Amino acid sequence: MKTPVYEERCDLPPGFRAAGVHAGIKADASKPDMALLVSDVPDTLAVGMFTTNKVKAAPVRLDQARLANGRARAVVINSGNANACTGPQGERDALEMGRLTAGALGLAEEDVLVCSTGTIGKPLNLDPIRKGIGMLAEGLRADGGPDAAQAILTTDTRPKMCMTRIPVDGKEVTLSGFCKGAGMIEPNMATMLAYICTDAVVEPESLREAVRTAVNQSFNRISIDGDTSTNDSVFVFANGSAGNAALSPEHPDWSLFQTALNGVIFDLAMKIVWDGEGMTKFIELRAKGAVSDAEADKALRAVANSFLVKTGWAGTYPVWGRIADVLGYCGVEIDPDAMGIEYNAIPVMRGGMSAGTPKETLDAVISENRYTITVDLGTGGSGTAVLYTCDCTEEYVRINMF
Amino acid sequence: MKTPVYEERCDLPPGFRAAGVHAGIKADASKPDMALLVSDVPDTLAVGMFTTNKVKAAPVRLDQARLANGRARAVVINSGNANACTGPQGERDALEMGRLTAGALGLAEEDVLVCSTGTIGKPLNLDPIRKGIGMLAEGLRADGGPDAAQAILTTDTRPKMCMTRIPVDGKEVTLSGFCKGAGMIEPNMATMLAYICTDAVVEPESLREAVRTAVNQSFNRISIDGDTSTNDSVFVFANGSAGNAALSPEHPDWSLFQTALNGVIFDLAMKIVWDGEGMTKFIELRAKGAVSDAEADKALRAVANSFLVKTGWAGTYPVWGRIADVLGYCGVEIDPDAMGIEYNAIPVMRGGMSAGTPKETLDAVISENRYTITVDLGTGGSGTAVLYTCDCTEEYVRINMF
Fold it and tell me: Which H/E stretch holds residue A113?
């Protein structure tokens, strides 16, 4: 099987167009705040995965309903206001935003998705949205992906794009996506949103399953601050313009397609961690020796979300004692006298106590901007997990104080 | 019933003596690092409550075993090193620390408790400990409470003391305590420890129950950063020198005694929150409308431990949208369209959306250094809870980076 090559670009597959504009939701006129992504192909497949938060923004609830048929032609996005906790008026505003977009594009309302990201609890002002939709519809371009990628950002410091091309039935298939997010949630300013387009022909049920697989290995394996947003959404559109024989697990190129989809989505997810608010260290957390994968996962999430561990990572001290402490209180089965911790495969704790590794050896690891910490819960079980996270710095506090 | 009056002092009850010295565990010679508290009365009752962390420091395990008989005469404490994650050597060091103290005081080893607080994972150096125990035994004084209160501190900015006197059978009974802690846990530097002494005569089982009641309303209702230490310990000593008829729920002054015990311990717990690392805001969190008290408690702990909520409190913006978000993901039953949030009884969110309260009204509340936030989970249930917490500032990050 060919190994896909991933590029930090967002060239849209044939049959997709996009645009990004400044409509006036953000005060700063240099910052675009609305985006539009359109498939020109009728019956384009669309799969969405949404936040598990019980408090769901109005557009999330609208999109969940509209994707019941597995199809969509366009998604309109605004940044600067999440349209969450906005009550019945928020529902009406999301509907209107979709209706205006459908009108401008000549599409059925049911084929248009709506996304919002930004401040929670503030009513949406439809005046700039109305103006923006007109500008977006006129500005749609086949090379508009990067503009859209820029327009959905909030506290992000840079756009996040990834694409690859793979051969399917000897035809070239493109997978190209962009996303935003600088935390799992920043309710005052942001949210995680991702859009992936492909021209592949795919069986609807197979696409749904492939997206679930890819998201579980990527967006569901990252944490900036442990908070789950009201607006988190991942969308995959497949418009079939590549003309290949429909992909499903029976197709000889299926695993290449799944690999490429996994790769694009994983790359986008890692770009979110690397742009985590105020982050200076990328930490790959691994757990082993747990009684189950679920317990390994629970332990890693507790480590990744400990104030003391995260602030410690920002410093110059290997905080293994704090990690041991978290493992002790996080509610999973451990053997305190058999636990171990490694930094990049260098033992730091062994048998529940210091492994005696020289400070200079550990200093060399933690001075890197990316390293791996592996915890062994000591139960002898075969449960494992991985989680990608980052440190918590003074800059994180500054960003989120206001 | 008389209302007890609480003072920020630590005058020990008759029959108790204490001392605090610099033994050399901390590098800074101006910082005392060892304390000793002794009861001169044989058969002094002692109750201990300890961390629920599965990773328990060696002295915690020792004290749990020694308190099985409900009696102790002395506790020796060092700050600067937690003697946690130190393996079999740590167990031997804790034993030796107790043995040396018993020898210096002429007590049975089993009557001496041992506490350590400070860095996790570093072997204890017994040289300064040995020297310190000699100095402490010679320096014991009836007015040594404040010295001991000072010597147990780590990242605390000030000693934490509270005392009250109540009449029991017409005799004066003293309850006097001190504690340390600037976070539920700071494994690199600190831990929560508390010591309360009384000269009351109390039935052993009644004392145990009274301590449990008092701790559940106080130390178990606070959170600085959501982390539970390897060393957290609360001790109550009752030496009976007041000579009252033994207190139990049948005694006419029992509820006054329980009230005074609750009051002293609650005051000490609040002093920990007010000295939370880097804190600038004291937040009283209240929940109602939950399906059970347990769910109300779970919701408040999630709010208190959210990075975004805590950093938001440090700022100048009422972060109700972030609180609503946490209520949505924390795993308790809510009605998103019926939830409410109040700041000092002023509605901020009502029916799942903004209550439209003017910004100036909320600004006035959040500019205070202490305010109450009440969340209504909207289920119509009768579950309630309270939790005392604080904000997370850049200073918190700075303190914990190293």
Answer: strand A112-119
B132-153 residue pLDDT tens: 999 999 999 999 999 999 999 9
Whether the CB of A220 is below 8 Å from some CB of chain B: the reply is no
Give the gap in angstroms from C-alpha A54 to the nearest C-alpha of chain B: 4
Which candidate from B121, B325, B352 shows the least CB-CB separation from A53?
Answer: B325
Positions of CATH 3.10.20.340 in chain B:
282-400
Active site residues of B: 191
Residue A307: list chain B partners with CB under 8 A. Answer: 225-227, 305, 307, 392, 396, 400
Judging contacts by C-beta atoms under 8 Å, the chain A residues touching residue B87 are: 337, 351-353
Contacting residues of A for B334, CB less than 8 Å apart: 54-55
pLDDT (tens digit, 9 = 90+) per residue, A113-147?
999 998 888 999 999 999 999 999 999 999 999 99
Contacts of A396 in chain B (CB under 8 A): 307, 311, 397
Q: Do B334 and A183 touch (CB under 8 A)?
A: no
- Whether A200 and chain B come into contact, CB under 8 Å, resolves to no
Enumerate the residues of chain A whose CB falls inside 8 A of the CB of residue B308: 183, 185-188, 225, 227, 400
Identify the H or E element spanning B112.
strand B112-119
Residue found by looking up tokens 């597959």 in the block: A13
What's the CATH superfamily of B16-274? L-amino peptidase D-ALA esterase/amidase (3.60.70.12)
Which one of A44, A191, A379, A393 is the catalytic residue? A191
Q: Residue A183: what pLDDT? A: 59
Question: Would you state the pLDDT for residue A191?
Answer: 60
Q: Which residues contact A287 (CB under 8 A, 6 or more apart)?
A: A296, A297, A299, A300, A374, A375, A376, A377, A383, A384, A385, A386
pLDDT, residue B218, reads 87
CB contact under 8 A, B325 and A229: yes
Residues of A353-381 as b/e, b for ≥16 C-beta within 10 angstroms?
bbbebeeeebeebbeeeebbbbbbbbbeb
**Res B351: pLDDT:** 94
Best probe of the A interface among B325, B394, B398, B400, by most A CBs < 10 A, is B325
pTM here is 0.87
Pick B282-400's CATH classification: 3.10.20.340, 2.40.128.110, 1.20.1250.20, 3.60.10.10.
Answer: 3.10.20.340
User: Please, which pLDDT band fits residue A187 given cuts at 50, 70 and 90?
Assistant: very low
Residues 227-286 of chain B whose Cβ lies under 8 A from any Cβ of chain A: 227-230
> Percent of chain B at pLDDT above 90?
78
* Confidence check: pLDDT of A155 > 70: yes
Q: List strands edge to edge, sheet with A171-180.
A: A45-50, A233-238, A193-198, A171-180, A160-168
- Residue B190 — very low, low, confident or very high, per pLDDT cuts 50/70/90? very low
Range(s) within chain A of domains with CATH label 3.60.70.12: 16-274
Residue whose C-alpha is closest to residue B121's, from A401, A354, A330: A354
Pairing mode, if any, of strands A370-376 and A282-290?
A: parallel
pLDDT exceeds 50 at position B186:
no
Percent of chain B beyond pLDDT 70?
A: 98
Q: What is the ipTM of this complex?
A: 0.85
Count of A–B CB contacts within 8 Å? Answer: 223
